[in-house]
Each structure stands twice: as C-alpha cells, then as structure tokens.
Amino acid sequence: MKAMSQLRIQSLTKIYPSVVANDAIDLEIQPGEIHAVLGENGAGKSTLMKMIYGVTPPTRGEIFWEDQPVRIRNPAHARTLGIGMVFQHFSLFESLTVVENTALSLPGGESLSALGQRISEVSEHYGLTVSPDRMIHDLSVGERQRVEIIRCLLQKPKLLIMDEPTSVLSPAAVEKLFETLRLISQEGCAILYISHKLVEIQRLCNRATILRNGKVSGTCIPAQETPQSLAEMMIGRDFDPPRRAPNQAGAISFSIHNLSLASEDPFGTNLNDIDLCVHAGEILGIAGVSGNGQKELCQVMSGETLAHDSSSITLMGKPVGKTAAFARRALGLAYIPEDRLGQAAIPAMSLTENAILTGTVTVGLARQGLLDLTAAESFARRCISSFRVKAQGPETAAGTLSGGNLQKFIAGREILQDPKIMICAQPTWGVDVGAAAFIRQALIDLARRGCAVIVISEELDELFEISDRIAVLAQGRLSPAQSIEATSVEQIGLWMSGLWQEQADAQA
Amino acid sequence: MLRLEARSTASDWMRLASPPIAVALTILTGLVIFALLGKDPLKGFEVFFINPLRSFYSVTELLLKATPLAICAMGLAIGFRANVWNIGAEGQFIVGAISATGIALSFGSVTALSLVLMVLAGMLGGAAWAGIAALLKTRFNTNEILVSLMLVYVAELLVSWVVFGPWKDPKGFNFPQTQMFETTALLPVLLEGSRLNLAFGFAIVLLAAGHVLLTRTTLGYKMRVAGESAGAAAYAGFSTKAMTWIGLMIGGACAGLAGMAEVAGPMGQLTDKVANGYGFAAIIIAFVGRLNPLGIGLAALLMALFYIGGEQAQQYLGLPGAISKVFQGLLLFYLLAADVLIGYRILWVQGRPSTDSGSPGAASKRST
User: Which of A273, A379, B213, B368 can pair with B220 through a Cys bridge, CB separation 3.0 to 4.6 Å?
Assistant: First the structure.
C-alpha cells in the first residue's frame, strides 16, 4: 500500500488574461520531505505557491491534501489545513514587537505574555534565536525571517512553503536556516522550498520539481544531478558565460574618502567611514546583503543624496560630494539603479520618453529648454537595436516590456552615453539568464573601453564572474577591496558578516 | 457582492471616449431630473443646452464665460501633471482680482499702462497666494491640498473685508462692491456688439503655450516625470521642490489672471462674489479635459454652458440656481465612474467576499 501523500496537485493550471502562468502542473510531496521547486524568474513558481496557499484560485486542476480533494478558498483556510508560508518579502509591521506581530496572525484570545512564552519555546527548540519583546525595525533581515518562520511554526503546520528564503541572507545565516529546516522536516513537516539557486537545492532538498515557462520540465533527485544538468532543465538551452579580457587599469576615475552619512530613512543604514577608489578600465564589485547600506551608498554615489563635504567624493579629479545627480551626469557618471520600474524607468511613458530621462545633456536630447524628440527617438532606437531589446518600437510603453528587456534597454541607455564612471546596483536582479549574461558582458566591454565600473550585487557568483577587485559592504561599513585572484567566495562570504577587521587584526 | 477586478490592459480608445460618455450620461440624468421636478424634459433641454447657442451674442457670452475657466484650468493642469495638488485656485483667483482692483483704483485712468500693471498684479497676486502653499510644502512638508484649500476661505474673508470696508463704493448704496473701473482699466472688447474681450485671446495663447510646455520643453517633461514617478525624478536629478514651486506658481498666476480678467471684463468692479466657484469648477475642467490643453478648452466650453444654462433654467423654468452645480457634480461623478471602469471590470461574486487581494503580502498580513 502506498503511503499517504501530504500534498498532491494534479494538472493545476492558472491562466491570466495575458499569459498562461501555470500549465498542467503535477507535483507530489510526502510528509517530512523537503521538496524543491526550481525555476527561473517568471517560470511560474510564485503562481503555483499562491494557488497552494489559497491566494489565487486555479483555473483548472485539482489539489489533494492528505489524499482528500480540497478547494483552498483563501490563506486563512490554508492555515487551518496546516499550510504555512514564508514570503520572500516579509509582511511585518516595523513599529511593533515580535510578539505583537505574531499575535496579529493568530486566532487571538491568548495573552501576549503567554504567547511570548510560546515564542521563546519554539525559538529555542528550533535554534531560531529571537527575543519576543524586540521591535521589528531593530532586527536584521535574518532575524525578521526567523520571526516569519516562528509565526508559521506556532500553528504547527504540516507543510511549510519557503519562497526564495536565502535571497536576503548572508552565507552564515543560510547555514543556520538549513539546520532549522532539516529539524522541522525531521519532525514530519513537509517543506516546499522555492529557489533558483542550484547548490542550495542540492544540499538541502530530497526531491525537486523543475519549472520552465509555466510547465514542469523535469523532476529529479538533486543530489544525483550536477549543477550543469539542473541548469539545463531550468533554462532549456546553453548560454555563453561572459568572457573577460585581461584588465589594464588606468588612472583613478572615481573615489570616496572617509565618507560617513546618516541615512534619511529612520529604518535605513548609516554609512560609516567609506573609502573606495575605482580605476579607469576596471570593475569593482561590492558584495553584501541588501539593507547593509547598499541603497544609501548608491544614492550618495549618484548624487541623489549629497555628502556633507564636497571633497569626500571625487569624480574625474573634481570634488563632487555636494554636486547634485544631474550635474554629476554631465561630468560623465551613469547609473543603473536597482529599482527598474520605480526609478530607472517610467512605466507609463514610451521608450523614447524614457530615453530622455538621463540623456538630456550627455546625448543632447534637449537644447535651450526644448526637447529634441527626433534625436530622442533615434537614441531610443539605438538602445533597442544595440542591446537587442525585444520591443515593438520606440513608442512602446516601458511598463509593457519584460523585466529582462527593460533592464537591457536601461543598460543600453546608460552605456551608450559613453560614461567615464558607471554605477550599477543589482544589474541582473529578476532578469532571465540570457539577458543577465548579455548585461554582464556589456559591463565588461564597457570597462575594457576605459570606463570605471562599480557593481553592487548580492550574487557572489556574478561578482566573481565579472569583477577585477571586490569589496564587501556590511552594516554600513566597506571592507578593503581585494583583487579577485587574491580572494575566494569563502572569504568574501565571511566578510559579509562584517568580520574583515578581526581578520586583519589577527594577521597583524 | 460586487467586486472590482483590474483589467490587464486599459483600452486607449475608451480613455478618449470616456469624457463624451460622461457628458452624455450627465445630460440624460439632467433630463430625468427635469422630469422629476415636473418640467417638460425637452423644454428643459432646449433652455439649458440649445438656447445658449442660438444667437451670435449668446455664443460670445458662452466664450466669455469659458475664458476664466479655461485660463484657471490650464494653470492647474500643469501642476496636476506634476502631482502638485493645488485645490485653491478659487482663493488665488480672488487674490488676483483684489490685486488687479488695487491697481485699477489707484492708476485706473492711465491708458495702457494701467491694464499692463493690472495683468501683472493679478498674476503676481495669485502666484503669491499659491506661493504660501509652496513655501509651507517645501519647508515643512505640509499638504498642499489642505493649505491651498484653507487659503480659499482666507481669501474669501479678505475680499469681503475690502469690499465692505476700505474699498466700498461711497455712492454704491452700501452694496459690498467697489466703484466701477474707468474704461481705461477695462479689457478691450474684441467683437463689436458683444462683451467678449481680450482675455479670450489670453486663454487661447495660454492653451497653446500649455501644449508647447507639456510636450516640447524640458520643464514640461520634468514635471510629467515628477508626476508619474517621484523615484524616477530623484534618479534623473530633477528637484521635486522646484516642481512644487513651479506647479503652484503657474497655477496661482493663471488663476490670478483669470480673476483680473473677471474684474476688468464683464464685472467692471470688485464684489465679494467675484469668484463664483470658477476656481473649483476649473479642477473639474482640468480632469474632464484629461489635463490636455485641447481637452481643457472643450471642457471649459461645456462647463460655461452649464453656468449659462443654469441661469437660463432659473429664468425660464423657475428652477433653483443650484442646478448648475448639480450638473457639474453629475459630470465629475460620471467621469470618475467611467475612469474606474477603464481600469477595472465589475464582477458579481457569490457568497462572502474572499480575502484574496491578489498580493501575497496583503493576504498574509490579514489575520484569521
């Protein structure tokens, strides 16, 4: 007799007005199993989880919970069945304490002190150290995730869904999370683990279901696969890794000297004594987990926020600490920010109009206060053709492009301005593998033409692929930059928890 | 249980069609109202919508009425494009009228110079009034909607004070009004046999200038970017403070000019009822016109028709004067309703509303 399955879904399909997000998905998970759902951005992982968690109803297909057919009406219903979910983007109130946040998601009727006691017990049992009375805004990202997990565990779930849980964690925190997840699964709780990180899945998961373009492209036991074979199932084609030509670094193009700056955001990170320099022709990678001052550093480098002292930032030999973003562009600075739709482009405007956003001075798209719309259109055409953007034409609204295509357009707009210094933050976040490889190659080519490039990224693999030197930003402090040959993923991973000072002291 | 579901793509065609649809529904509802009030709907329609278009004179009266509305709405639309919510054009209109009156009462007999000074005074007065809201917004991050609206009431008290007090016409039988302006302080009439004056020319020039500003200039582009996305404006290095100032100053200056045109045009004097709701009607016009100069011109004509039609209905049908306000309200209501339906479709859902909101964060935040 076959053992009971915890969850089985049969030809589950979700059709949105413009796209088939999930096409006849089958998946089965046993009690205590850690099951990976692997796929690229846009492969349909999130839609699948939303249907299982009752956020959105399926168009067709069936869900069996403990071998009984169910229609999951909403997340509350899912929770009563015993399904818990930890979202990639946390839903915690920053100005409330851990115990208050937890109480909000529970049926109620329990005193806060009794709940606090239960939280302490659960956190101790699973090694999820967090104090119930602390405010959320005081917690690190890893600790916030623990609060989310504890919140789920308090309801004694039989299935825990984790959506890209490691995307915000440092390597050490990932290790701890894995220990916890293994313990949870040993106690009989099944875990659906959503990720696109192959190595993690190989280490953690018993089985994997791979999605591509909304369909199941394969199931496997990850431990028996290689990263290459998993990647092939995920992507379905080969792609060229970027080529790096030898680096011939020139003079210093951009430098920051002893910069400290308090964040304007009450929950932001203060920058503390930042020192860096980039030479013409090289790529400086800045590793670290978002929320460690990445946003603040980008803003102060691009000129969105100003430094207190003009000489603390130098661009092509000129002090620019108090020069605003618009004027820094005229001096040859270009910037690809992390937020494509909220910052780098205006979704409702056409690509032509989006081309004007940063190109008024450097490309000459405006003269004497008047726009040159013909020049803007031909510049937009150049961005589209030289960066292979799939768009109907320059009149297409930016918001209708896919993430990868829009990012290629933005990269094209910034790179074709022929900058002397390029700053880019998370250049391949949420971008498909092909477009990511294209953008990385474009950044390498740009550097080899003599531009100084700074890449801020969470993806260590990406940084090691393209950087000449690499530094770490942790807790608002920047480590010294190491040449890529002189360091390793392990060392940078260690530094991401802010430990370079101790290491330097130990060597001294 | 009714529910709204977002459409995946909004139809461009419906976006253009929605103002005419709103107008048609307004007129239909108006006919029903006439019938409910015991009036013949066809007679009502004729009095309200046809009579104001019958003769050369009545058409020039319509244009005359539309002029301050169009001037005001154009100024507001430029600010609205940049998400600067100036709701106080009524107050800026009044202060512009007061400033122009001040010039008329002191230099009114000097030909040409008096009019030029009145135009400048009207614009500066309106801009200065809006500038208070801009200053408070950029300095203390106050809400410009509240500040500009509250300043309307201050301006109304100010105009009452001047016409009941220092500037009251000594020969005016104690009415709250100033003395009539000298002819040299009145805008010249454009068409013989009508009251249509030079302000109509200002309105045409302003609408054209508004079109150029919004579509061809860097400034207009920056304002549109600031309105669409504050993040993108910061990224490009456009100052939001500058946009707040420019948006409010242009809106204020236009409203002030409209106020000047009213006292130096059909009224010929300042009274405490000078604004007549034009500043608020201009907000509706700006939106009915889709913040687009051509649309604003058409919407201003329509709103002028409501004003004149309302007066006619008062005179010939014995309906209360509030009927114009009813029509204004209906139009805005239908336009907003049409706009919602462009972006959403209505679904009939059986049973209790689901907690599904489409966004995982929102859903998970909800407690059981």
Answer: B213
